Every structure is written in structure tokens, then in C-alpha cells.
Amino acid sequence: MEAKYFFEIGNYTKAYKLAGEAYTLNPYNRMAFTIKIQSKIASQWQHFINDANDFFNKTEQIANKNDITKKDKLRIKIMLEILLGEYKTLTPSILLPKDLKEKAKEKYIKAKKLYEKLFNK
Q1: In this model, does residue 6 exceed pLDDT 90?
Q2: Ramachandran class of 10: left when φ > 0, alpha when ψ lies in -120 to 50, beta otherwise
Q3: How many domains does the chain have?
Q4: Terminal CA-CA length for the chain
Q5: Please, what's the b/e burial string for 20-51 (b: 16 or more CB within 10 A of its CB; e: otherwise)?
Q6: Residue 24: which domain range?
């Protein structure tokens, strides 16, 4: 139950750990197994959102420069391609919190629009 609580408040790492411990103690504990798996998936989605936030912060720093070099443009392109690829590899799940999926989708759409705008693709 404690693992479920941490999953519900968005602390997926703690939920994964606690659910793993509960599952180890009782391998027939379905709730522990489900929370463990869902916490791992949710952590991947959260990691994507964090990566996107970091990327957009770095992009903003580059955009605020007086002179944007070819190296800067290439760096942005590579980071966008990584971000877009990362989103496509996220494991879908109907048990994930809706806001987590929505935030990730917003980041993906923002990255895709930026990529299309900057690189005409």
C-alpha cells in the first residue's frame, strides 16, 4: 500500500523500490507486481519530460546568444532527434497518470514543431 501511495504522488523511484521489496517477500502479490512495473514505465516517462525540460533550457541559452554557430545548430538538431526518438520508445500504459502522459505529449509536440521549423522536415 505504501508503494501505491508513492506511485500516486509521483515518486516513481520510491514506489518501484517498495513494490519490489513487497514482491520479493510475496511473489503472488499482484498489486506489488503491477506497481513495480508501472513505476518503472512511469519513471521512463518522467525521465523523458526531464530530458525535454533540460533540452529546452539549453536551446533557450543558445538562442539568446548574439551569434549562433553551425555547431550550435547541429547540437540542437541532434538533441531534438534524440528527444523525438526517445518519445517514440516510451512504453504505453493505460495505468499511467493522465497528466504524465499529457506533459510528455506536449513536450514531444513542442520538439517536433521546433524541429520542423528549424530544419524544414
Answers
A1: yes
A2: left
A3: 1
A4: 47
A5: bebbeeeeeeeebbbbbbbbbbbebbbebbeb
A6: 2-119
Give 46's contacts (C-beta < 8 A, 6+ positions apart).
10, 12, 100
- One-letter identity of residue 81: E
0.70 cut: is pTM over it?
Answer: yes
- We report the CATH number of the domain holding residue 91 as 1.20.58
Mean pLDDT score across all residues of the chain:
93
Task: Find where cell 518522467 sits.
Answer: 46
* Span 30-78, pLDDT tens digits: 999 999 999 999 999 999 999 999 999 998 888 888 888 889 889 999 9
